[in-house]
Amino acid sequence: MAGEKNVGLVLLSSSMSPFGQRCSIALAEKGLPHEYVEEDLAAKSDLLLRSNPIYKQIPVLLHDGRTVIESLIILQYLDEAFPSTRPLLPADPYERARARFWADYVDKKLYGCASRLYMVKEEPQTPAKVEMAEVLKTLEGELGGKEFFGGEQGFGFVDAALMPFATWFESFDRYWGVGVAEVAPKLAAWGARCMEKESVSKSVCSPKEVYDFIGQTRKNLGIE
Question: N or C: at which end does the chain have fewer Cβ atoms within 10 angstroms?
């Protein structure tokens, strides 16, 4: 463990990025000290452009100078590169596959739908709003009666992948009328439980910061 923790880790990210936040959560859960570098996405650094020349996006994890990109890949890499730290993925191959599926679902469905909602001007129900309600219900169904998506393992891979978006829940309601507490109350309660964890609360933005960020983004897009 001591040898592993001395290996240099650098996270290039942006404080408002839910994808970067999930990496910060994972590093905190594993107790891995690292350097954090805040990136200005309007003026990307040479380090970021060199480290991720294909996508030119954050987050990027540097491990002894070697580059790992894409947030879910970073989470899996941390499990494999630091096996003596607390695992995020289950030990069972089938359960690992299920965890990867649901983390991918978060990115494709929840984030994909939220991105489309950015563009909504009208107040009436839109396809994206209806879809978001269904996505939230589906995630609640997978959570079921468990405290965390990791089940007996506790806070795990899917929790880390989804939790940064829980700070968006308030904005879903205020901007688009998708009340998570009404649509998926167990999921809302799960988000509140996660925020009680120091690894989470110190890694994510507040709901107000998210609300203000979305509002500014909509203004920049000419929607408001």
Answer: N
